[in-house]
Amino acid sequence: MSRPVRRPPLAVVLVAIAMMALGETAGATMSQLKPQIQRYAAARVAANPEAHGFSGSAEYDDEVRAQAIFSAETGLSFFHLHAEGVGLVLFFAATLVAALVPARRVRTLLYILLTLGGLFPVGYLAYGAAVLELGRDAGIGLAERWLLAPLGVAAIAGLLGLMLVTARRRA
Amino acid sequence: MSVVANASVWRLPPRWVLLVALLSIACAEIGGAAMARFKVELARWARDRMLARPAVHGLVGVRDVDERILDEALVKFDAGLRLFHMHAEGMGLVIIATTMVATTMAQSVAVRRTITALLTTGGAGYPVGYLLWSALIPSYGPDGAKTIAEWLVWVPFGSATIAALWWLVGLVALRMLRPEK
Question: Complex ipTM, two decimals?
Fold first, then answer.
């Protein structure tokens, strides 16, 4: 028997749609403004020589600069990819929560976890920016520790919680 | 003209929208399967077409030089097919999710129809650009093919999707600020 499917709260829908819009926009920006992004990245690396461990040897410094710019571009590219995908995951998972979870407190907890998880792609934007400002290893470490890991854990916890509630409901 | 609907439940988008989204996903699946099954044939076809147009690809008749150029073009040819596969899968789902939001949240029929049309045509059309890029690489070279795909498909269809998505973000934000009475 079919019945109307409840929707999640507007704040959750907003985060999901905004993440998809940001992902699309990042993809277009990467494609249309590639030279400008590379120039900006090179300028930021040059402005933070100590963070990148420049030695004064042109050959070594060029290699370090190229790696930092590549990492920053990778961050943007991962943001594009994850924002599209995670936006969809948040949208459909939150819809399942709205439709399947009867207890209001559990539902709220799952919305919070999934929405935090929906912000996971922002970690990749931070990854790209932090690499340029703090150096490759320190930048990646910072983004992973403070954004990617906690937000990723929130997403996993939310999805596992939804799975458990769904399994209990069937049982 | 506007509609009053129960916005606490999802409303399905029009059937043609769902069909377009499913077609996009199906094409992506078929594209992925075809890439795997006919990988050698596709590469051979592209290579033969490129060898038939040496001037377009800057082939000079020296094996070492030409092979490198052909390999680079073939990598891009393959990348175009992969990107079509990936984007068509994703955009099919994006069409379903976002048009559901538009159908549920937009009270004005004109706004709802416009956002839905932009999201559907933009979302389904954009991935075709990657297919076009791949198909044109043997004839026009990677850069020439990219320019054609960019202006014929990526820019118009991508812009439609981005504009509609931000419009939808604004609409949902507005609904949060001014809830339905």
Answer: 0.91
Per-residue model confidence as pLDDT tens digits over A68-83: 999 999 999 999 999 9
A10–B175: do the CB atoms touch at under 8 Å? yes
Q: Is A21 part of any domain?
A: yes
- Chain B contact for A20, CB < 8 A? yes
Q: Is B131 in the A-facing interface, judged by CB distances under 8 Å?
A: no
Q: Record the pTM.
A: 0.92
Q: Which two three-digit tokens encode residue A98?
A: 């709205």
The answer to whether position A4 is within a domain reads no
Is A5 contained in some domain? no
The letter for the amino acid at B93 is L
Best of A13, A31, A32, A89 to mutate (most B CBs within 10 Å, chain B): A13
Burial A28-53 (b: 16+ CB within 10 A, else e): beeeeeeeebeeebbebbeeeeebbe
User: What is the Cα–Cα distance from B99 to B112, expressed in whole angstroms?
Assistant: 9
- Check CB contact under 8 Å for A6 and B154: no
